[in-house]
Write a structure and sequence with these properties.
Radius of gyration: 28 Å
Number of domains: 2
Order of helices and strands: HHHHEHHEE
Low-confidence stretches: none
Distance between the termini: 18 Å
Helix content: 55-70%
Number of strands: 3
Oligomer: single chain
Structural class: mainly alpha
């Protein structure tokens, strides 16, 4: 998972750099058009905009495409960075929880995680081979620590992993 997060971070940073470059190009284009009354060399030729005023040259489809693509790259980069941070936070939280739990609590935590985060108390002690009393004590400790939430569910409890 670490390798995927590093790759995701690199893609996000690349996207931010690309978007920033496109927006910088548009700002440079606007500066030369509005304040210098010239066109950028090698990017646009004066013949392409000879009939346009400098302000209307900034609103051509090509110029607006720079802005749109730059903004899309920037939004994509920010979204990917926030997604990567959320995944890293989940990994760190799982690691910290797993190091702070006792052996029995860790078994229950891993079993819940393996089954999508929701099981009944009866399914838990059946899957782990623990007595109902021991399972009840472990669930009470995990609930005190804020790792799980237990809800009444018929004659048993539904255990939900809090993440």
């Amino acid at each position: 998972m670490k390798k995927e997060l590093k790759t995701l971070n690199r893609i996000a940073i690349g996207s931010l750099v690309c978007g920033g470059f496109l927006l910088f190009l548009y700002a440079l284009f606007a500066y030369f058009l509005l304040w210098q009354n010239t066109f950028l060399p090698y990017i646009d030729t004066p013949t392409a905009f000879s009939s346009l005023t400098p302000a209307s040259a900034l609103l051509t489809p090509r110029a607006l495409l720079w802005v749109f693509c730059g903004m899309m790259f920037m939004l994509n980069g920010f979204y990917l960075l926030s997604f990567a941070r959320k995944q890293e936070f989940k990994e760190h939280k799982t690691f910290v929880l797993s190091t702070l739990l006792s052996d029995g609590e860790q078994l229950v935590f891993n079993e819940l995680k393996k089954n999508g985060g929701v099981l009944t108390q009866r399914e838990l002690y059946g899957a782990l081979g623990m007595s109902p009393v021991k399972m009840h004590r472990i669930i009470a400790r995990l609930e005190q620590k804020g790792v799980i939430k237990a809800h009444p569910f018929g004659m048993t409890k539904k255990i939900v992993l809090q993440q």
